[in-house]
């Protein structure tokens, strides 16, 4: 089924012609303040990062001599960067699908009309109100091998202690679980908003037609929610790629680099080891990865999105 | 729909309050003709108050200079901030930097060695503890003023020792004694021994045997080119950890200081290595008797002593001479016996000025906390050498990460020799890159 915006394509060139004509100058003026902010805090640092990624730098981040592609080739041939890349992709894989499905289930539950539902909505979205630092500290205590509640629960069921954050096999998964918990509030809230915007008449007609609730979920809820779901998926994926706080607080990239995701590796290289050139190169690679994945997501995902 | 709005507004409010934190106030207020000295430090929690007290004491004593301590986050964060303002008028007059940042600060060229003021004034440096000033003295130049210095000590649970039939007044001193004690102490939920996954402890355990960390006399007679900690001394340390971990008498507590301390307080581990600066809080918080002992050595090895850890105070170069003088005045004040006594007792860090130890206040506290005295004795008994002076390398923070990775790989069953060699090879690369950079500057 062709989507609506594909039909809109042929019209675009005519729009573009008018973009820089006089009347739109006023429009540009309106945009100017935020555009300036973007240039200062986003575009300039981005260009500078790309620039620095081709240089050897001193400890203050001043370029010393041109390095060509060397920063990139060293990275791509170093095992520690490849470990980082693998950890990053695994982390995204662990957090995004589970996080979105969990939030969707909670949103469906909270979308019922019943007494006291406001309480549950507040609870489900409450993690949104917590900073990453505060929630990470909570999870740090939960996972603590000697005094944490996670091990107490395991012991209660007769299971042996686990070293959640200290074992390279479980560390990434443990951080992922904490991250899912942290992100649920935001995802839940957006999805609930999407659910509430669905016209209730559609469900009423479905009920009159006597279809099963599963059928109406598949044929009404999912298509009508698809723009929201698509937005949530894209945003959580990008977020997940950029996760930093919880890793810094929970594992510091350890043990044996198993949670050293690219963002953390950039931080370590730039601000602990002062290799600004190499850190910039990593940032460029991460940017390209996120960019490409987002484009793919738009190309593939948007076909399934139903815009009203 | 209305409800949803309420919820989202509520969430926004919580979110905003959670995110807002007051930025450090670095405004200068020198309208009254006093010289303002900004002092950047990384002492958090209780220690921040102690630093403030020291500055207040100085400000009250004279009326020419005002010292304003500003907390700048951890040592790593503070050094990054310093980096951005170094060499400008905005640089703080005094900057506290951790010991492994020493070479980095010297190489930056943005600092003024305090030696200049020592020479100008004929200041008697002999009143400072030699074993501490040694670390911050390079090529016979005193670069910075030691401020908070600490060393590693063995901390143990005396009650657990009694229960296991060990003498609680005698701390294990050699590796075999540690192993034996740990075996007896490991039962039920309790594990015998632990070391934090932190490079500093490995450096210390090597230095106490007289081993070097890098070549060129620990980087003190020239730029270090190769890591040498994978020699015989390092291997003994790693073998100890590896063997004990396999036996189940060594507990891996990760990289977090709070975690290892919590494990000790909760009785999960009976012996561990800690910084002397943490000792007082540990004794106060523990629900059992706490003992302190020297850093253990392998059997048949003569104890060489410990490297000084902690941090020192640096003076910025490109600021007014007047401010530098004022900063120097404050540094001198900090090293007086009275201030040092107060500092030692409240923080657990060493006194830079040994005269402080003879003051009655210190002697009284030592009666109450004999553990503090153990740390001081260990430092006094240190034999000065390149090994105990500590390594001087610019890529120290990076080197520590590699050592931590090597420690962590031990728990995964990697052979000690292999883990050490891998870390050493990686550090060699970093050293080479750093030397190349310095060469091209």
From TrEMBL, chain A:
Keyword Chaperone attributed: no
UniProt keyword annotation of Transit peptide present: no
Pfam families listed in its UniProt record: BPD_transp_1 (PF00528)
Residue ranges constituting the ABC transmembrane type-1 domain according to the UniProt record: 85-297
Domain of life: Bacteria
Gene3D superfamilies for the chain: MetI-like
Membrane topology: Multi-pass membrane protein
Record's subcellular location: Cell membrane
Matching InterPro entries: ABC_transporter_permease (IPR051393), MetI-like (IPR000515), MetI-like_sf (IPR035906)
Keywords, sorted A to Z: Cell membrane, Membrane, Transmembrane, Transmembrane helix, Transport
Positions of transmembrane segments: 27-47, 87-110, 122-142, 171-195, 216-238, 279-298
Family statement drawn from the similarity comment of this UniProt entry: Belongs to the binding-protein-dependent transport system permease family.
Protein name: Sugar ABC transporter permease
Biological source species: Cytobacillus stercorigallinarum
UniProtKB/TrEMBL annotation, chain B:
Keywords: Periplasm, Signal, Transport
Chief location: other
A Pfam family: SBP_bac_8
Span of the signal peptide: 1-23
InterPro entries in the record: Bact_solute-bd_prot1, SBP, SBP_1_CS
Cellular compartments annotated: Cell envelope
The family this protein is said to belong to: Belongs to the bacterial solute-binding protein 1 family.
Name of the protein described by the UniProt record: ABC transporter substrate-binding protein
Lineage, uppermost ranks: Bacteria, Bacillati, Bacillota, Bacilli, Bacillales
């Amino acid at each position: 089924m062709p989507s609506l915006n594909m039909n809109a394509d042929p019209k675009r060139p005519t729009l573009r012609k008018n973009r820089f004509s006089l009347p739109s100058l006023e429009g540009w003026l309106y945009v100017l303040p935020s555009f300036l902010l973007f240039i200062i805090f986003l575009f300039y640092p981005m260009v500078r990062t790309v620039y620095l990624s081709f240089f050897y730098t001193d400890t203050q981040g001043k370029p010393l001599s041109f390095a060509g592609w060397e920063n990139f080739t060293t990275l791509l041939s170093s095992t520690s960067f490849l470990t980082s890349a693998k950890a990053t992709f695994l982390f995204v894989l662990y957090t995004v699908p589970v996080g979105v499905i969990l939030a969707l289930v909670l949103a469906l539950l909270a979308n019922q009309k019943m007494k006291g539902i406001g309480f549950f909505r507040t609870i489900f979205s409450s993690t949104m109100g917590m900073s990453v630092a505060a929630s990470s500290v909570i999870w740090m205590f939960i996972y603590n091998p000697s005094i944490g509640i996670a091990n107490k629960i395991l012991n209660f069921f007769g299971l042996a202690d686990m070293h959640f954050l200290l074992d390279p096999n479980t560390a990434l998964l443990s951080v992922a679980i904490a991250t899912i918990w942290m992100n649920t509030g935001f995802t839940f809230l957006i999805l609930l908003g999407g659910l509430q915007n669905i016209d209730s008449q559609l469900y009423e007609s479905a009920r009159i037609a006597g279809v099963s609730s599963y059928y109406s979920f598949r044929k009404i809820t999912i298509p009508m929610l698809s723009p929201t779901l698509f937005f949530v998926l894209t945003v959580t994926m990008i977020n997940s790629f950029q996760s930093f706080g919880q890793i810094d607080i929970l594992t510091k990239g350890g043990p044996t680099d198993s949670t050293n995701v690219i963002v953390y590796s950039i931080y370590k290289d730039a601000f602990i080891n002062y290799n600004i050139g190499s850190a910039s190169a990593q940032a460029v690679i991460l940017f390209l990865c996120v960019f490409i994945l987002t484009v793919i997501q738009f190309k593939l995902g948007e076909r399934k999105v139903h815009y009203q | 729909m209305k409800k949803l709005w309420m919820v989202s507004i509520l969430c926004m409010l919580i979110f905003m309050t959670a995110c807002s934190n007051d930025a450090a106030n670095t405004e200068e207020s020198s309208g009254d003709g006093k010289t303002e000295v900004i002092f950047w430090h990384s002492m958090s929690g209780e220690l921040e108050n102690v630093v403030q007290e020291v500055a207040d004491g100085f400000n009250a004593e004279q009326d020419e200079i005002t010292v304003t301590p500003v907390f700048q986050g951890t040592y790593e964060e503070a050094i990054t901030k310093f980096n951005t303002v170094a060499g400008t008028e905005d640089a703080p007059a005094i900057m506290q930097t951790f010991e492994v940042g020493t070479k980095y600060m010297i190489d930056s060229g943005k600092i003024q060695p305090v030696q200049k003021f020592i020479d100008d004034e004929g200041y008697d440096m002999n009143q400072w503890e030699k074993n501490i000033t040694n670390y911050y003295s390079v090529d016979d130049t005193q670069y910075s003023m030691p401020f908070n210095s600490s060393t590693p000590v063995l901390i143990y649970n005396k009650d657990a020792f009694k229960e296991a039939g060990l003498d609680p007044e005698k701390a294990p001193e050699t590796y075999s004694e540690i192993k034996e004690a740990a075996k007896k102490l490991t039962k039920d939920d309790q594990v015998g021994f632990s070391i934090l996954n932190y490079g500093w402890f490995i450096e210390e355990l090597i230095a106490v045997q007289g081993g070097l960390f890098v070549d060129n006399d620990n980087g003190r007679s020239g730029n270090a080119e190769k890591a040498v900690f994978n020699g015989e001394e390092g291997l003994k340390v790693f073998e100890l950890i590896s063997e004990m971990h396999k036996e189940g008498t060594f507990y891996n507590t990760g990289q977090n200081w709070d975690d290892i301390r919590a494990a000790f307080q909760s009785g999960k581990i009976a012996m561990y290595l800690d910084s002397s600066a943490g000792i007082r809080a540990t004794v106060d918080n523990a629900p059992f008797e706490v003992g302190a002992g020297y850093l253990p050595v392998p059997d048949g090895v003569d104890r060489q002593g410990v490297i000084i850890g902690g941090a020192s105070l640096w003076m910025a170069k490109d600021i007014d001479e007047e401010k530098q003088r004022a900063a120097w005045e404050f540094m001198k004040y900090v090293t007086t016996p009275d201030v040092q006594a107060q500092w030692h007792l409240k923080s657990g860090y060493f006194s830079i000025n040994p005269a402080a130890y003879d003051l009655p206040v210190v002697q009284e506290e030592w009666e109450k906390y004999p553990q503090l005295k153990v740390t001081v004795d260990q430092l006094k008994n240190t034999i000065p050498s390149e090994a105990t002076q500590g390594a001087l390398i610019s890529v120290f923070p990076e080197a520590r990460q590699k050592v931590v990775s090597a420690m962590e790989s031990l728990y995964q069953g990697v052979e000690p020799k292999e883990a050490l060699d891998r870390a050493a090879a990686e550090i060699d690369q970093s050293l080479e890159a750093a030397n190349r950079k310095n060469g091209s500057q």
